[in-house]
Amino acid sequence: MAHIWDDWWMNKDVNKHITIWYMLGRVAPIGALFLLCIALIFDVHSWLEYLLVAIGTVFAVIAFTWWWWVLDTVKELFNLLKGAHQRFDTIIEDIQEIKSEVNASNRKRNQQKKD
Predict the structure, then answer these.
(1) Is-contact 60 19, C-beta < 8 A?
(2) Domains in the chain: how many in total?
(3) Tell me: the pLDDT tens digits for 10-55?
């Protein structure tokens, strides 16, 4: 039984679950506050009003979630480009170092023929 549990745990996508709970932790409190504010402001009494408030809340939560997703995506894209730029700078420095070492060496080189 322990072997099955270990295999299941290893195959589980933990980052996916962390992302879901992270988004839920951001969106659920705002959605609940929004729902309470709408219910208090519009003095909801009938089932139709509850339905309309629920539909509006769903749309608001989706919009809020989408906005946070966009902000996180832009942040990750910026970090990716920043990391790529740093790696590219490292490669350029290494190439310049190799070029200077080759030019400083005393070995005899054949000259290239010009066409």
Answers:
(1) no
(2) 1
(3) 556 766 766 777 777 777 777 777 777 877 787 878 888 778 777 8
Report whether 53 contacts 32 (CB < 8 A): no
How many CA atoms does the CB half-sphere of 95 hold within 13 Å?
6
Residues contacting residue 42 through CB under 8 Å, at least 6 positions apart: 49, 53
Nearest-angstrom CA–CA distance, 68 and 109: 59
Tokens of 22: 């992270």
Tokens 């969106």 correspond to 27
pTM: 0.46
CB 68, CB 23: distance < 8 Å: yes
Residue 16 lies in a domain: yes
Number of residues in the chain: 115
70/111 Cα distance (integer angstroms): 56
Q: How far is residue 69's CA from residue 20's CA, in Å, rounded to a whole number?
A: 11
Domain membership flag for residue 115? no
